[in-house]
Amino acid sequence: MRIGANVPGFWPCKTCDYNWTSDANQRWFLFAAKERGADIFEAFSNSPPYWMTNSGCSSGGQNFSDNLNSSYYDAHADYLTEVVRWYKEQGLIFRTLDPFNEPTFRHWRDYGSQEGCSYSCYAMKEIIKKVGAYLDKKDLSENTSISIADESTIDEEVSTISCIGEDAKSYISQYNTHAYWGIHRTQLYNIAKQDGKRLWMSEVYVIFAASIIFNKYYEIMLSCYLVECWNRGFISSKDMSTSIQLSEEILNDMRNLKPGAWVYWQAIEDDHNDWNDGWGLIGVNYSNSTTPLNKHLAFYGFAQYTKFIRPGYQIISSNDSDTLAAYDAGNKTLVLVCTNKNKMLNIWDINVSMFNIS
Q1: Which PANTHER family does the annotation name (predicted)?
Q2: What region does 23 belong to: left with phi over 0, alpha with psi -120 to 50, or beta?
Q3: What DSSP letter does each residue of 203-265 carry, written as one string?
Q4: Residue range 92-143, pLDDT digits in tens
Q5: CA torsion, points 218, 224, 228, 231, in degrees to nearest 10?
Q6: Who's near 39: CB < 8 A, 6+ residues apart?
Q7: Residue 290: what are its φ and ψ, rounded to 5°?
């Protein structure tokens, strides 16, 4: 697997005890975030432990098939909730637990470059119910509920939600979707609203943050699209177009998906890997900690949103598709982030008369 993708687990083998010293670096960052004011924590599972899988490999199954052995459904649910319980004892509470990550994306196969696991709809339904039951049994459900399904596409998220059934939905408080492509943003928003679930856009990165571009190719084979984005990615960290793409994705999602949170994937990436596709906002050398940080142009583009639209601000409507408007009623602060997609000067005439500004 690529550097950073082979993540140690807490249950190393069937006959082993739990090893809570595993993954020390990532645990350090988690608690460091808490110490610095982070107050919402989300847990998700990329893959079951390798010894619970059909392939014996945590990157996926043979021919992209379901990889959690059905005899371990219960054990895996126990494992996931045991991790949540242990963190609670350390003073950190996960608000949600997602047992899956991109479960229907046909990418996860044995001996791949990162951890992942495919699940059928039947498997997801059974695992959701078992995880929910263990949360109840361990007195965790008061603080921690289930989110699903972190599908790679908005359309796949819609499909997964429709198939899991009401008994499984009763354990769910939040729908998480990735926004790598897909067109049914408004439909997903309406489903979440109808079901009474929170909705998050929980992952996207910059070379794929171009759903508007993707829609032009929606009838073309996925492999062609991947080649297109891959070619764009090689110049992304040094090209202003990535900041524009990222802003277009934010605008499209906030206008049509209306998520409660919009989450970028990896803030930091290895600038010195074999593909170097520019997905991170900041590049580093994973093999040499003394090298300086390399802030990609997308870092500055994203900062136009994150520095000014703060947690708790309300996104309000704007009649300009290239402008995101947010308002903080407590501080009476209005924020407008405008995106100029052209290389020419653009001037905005902004009407704020409704705010009674004197």
Answers
A1: ENDO-BETA-1,6-GALACTANASE (PTHR42767), ENDO-BETA-1,6-GALACTANASE-LIKE DOMAIN-CONTAINING PROTEIN (PTHR42767:SF1)
A2: left
A3: E--GGG--HHHHHTTTTS-HHHHHHHHHHHHTTGGG-THHHHHHHHHHHHIIIII--SEE--S
A4: 999 999 999 999 988 899 988 899 999 999 999 999 999 999 999 999 999 9
A5: 160
A6: none
A7: -90, -10
Residue 132, classed as helix, strand or coil, is helix
Which residue bears the tokens 């020419």? 344
Q: Assign a CATH topology to domain 1-203.
A: TIM Barrel (3.20.20)
Give pLDDT, residue 216.
Answer: 40
pLDDT, tens only, 177-193: 999 989 999 999 999 99
Instruction: Give the residue ranges of the chain where pLDDT is below 70.
Output: 207-238, 273-278, 357-358
The ranges assigned to domains in the chain are: 1-203
Give the span between the Cα atoms of 177 and 355, in whole angstroms: 34
| C-alpha to C-alpha distance for 337 and 317, rounded to whole angstroms | 13
Task: Tell me which residue has tokens 């098939």.
Answer: 65
Closest CA to 193 of 174, 177, 166, 165: 174
Rama region for 77: left / alpha / beta (φ>0; ψ in -120 to 50; rest): alpha
Which phi-psi region, left, alpha or beta, contains residue 74 (left: φ > 0; alpha: ψ -120 to 50)? alpha
- Residue 199 has phi, psi (to 5 degrees) of -130, 125
Please state the pTM of the whole predicted model.
0.90
- pLDDT reported for residue 213: 43
